[in-house]
Amino acid sequence: MIQPSEYEEPFGCNIIEAYLSGTPVITSHLGSFNDTVLHGITGYRCSNINEYLCAIDNIKNISNEKCYEEGLKY
Predict the structure, then answer these.
(1) Residue 3 neighbours by CB distance under 10 Å
(2) What pLDDT, on the 0 to 100 scale, is given for residue 6?
(3) Percentage, residues of the chain above pLDDT 70
(4) Dihedrals phi, psi of 6, to nearest 5 degrees
(5) Nearest-CA neighbor of 35 among 51, 50, 19, 23?
(6) Which pLDDT does position 9 carry in this prediction?
(7) 62 and which of 12, 24, 33, 73 could share a cystine (Cβ 3.0–4.6 Å)?
(8) pLDDT for 28-61, tens place per residue?
(9) Among the listed residues 44, 48, 47, the one whose alpha carbon sits nearest the alpha carbon of residue 61
(10) In angstroms, how far is the first alpha carbon of the chain from the final one?
(11) What is residue 57's three-state secondary structure?
């Protein structure tokens, strides 16, 4: 899932929903994403277009199982 939000997300429940389906995420560095997205483990947090493009190229390196396990914590 890609969510390049410019909004200071207060929690971002859709991230947890993605995790529970085993889906890694690509987000910005804003709001709760710093707490819910484990960079390089459950997805990537990005600041600019080049980081987003790199994250898309490397999303295959994220474990679906790790995402699901992280989702269960919430």
Answers:
(1) 17
(2) 83
(3) 97
(4) -100, 5
(5) 19
(6) 66
(7) 24
(8) 988 888 889 999 999 999 999 999 999 999 999 9
(9) 44
(10) 18
(11) helix
Residue carrying the six token digits 């890609």: 2
Contact 54, 30 (CB under 8 A): no
* Sign of the CA dihedral running 62, 12, 49, 45: negative
CA dihedral 46, 51, 74, 24 (to 10 degrees): 160
Higher pLDDT, residue 16 or 5: 16
Tokens of 47: 């600041």
| Residue 9: HSE in the Cβ half-sphere, 13 Å Cα cutoff | 19
Map tokens 């989702």 to a residue: 71
Alpha-carbon distance of 73 to 65, in angstroms, equals 13
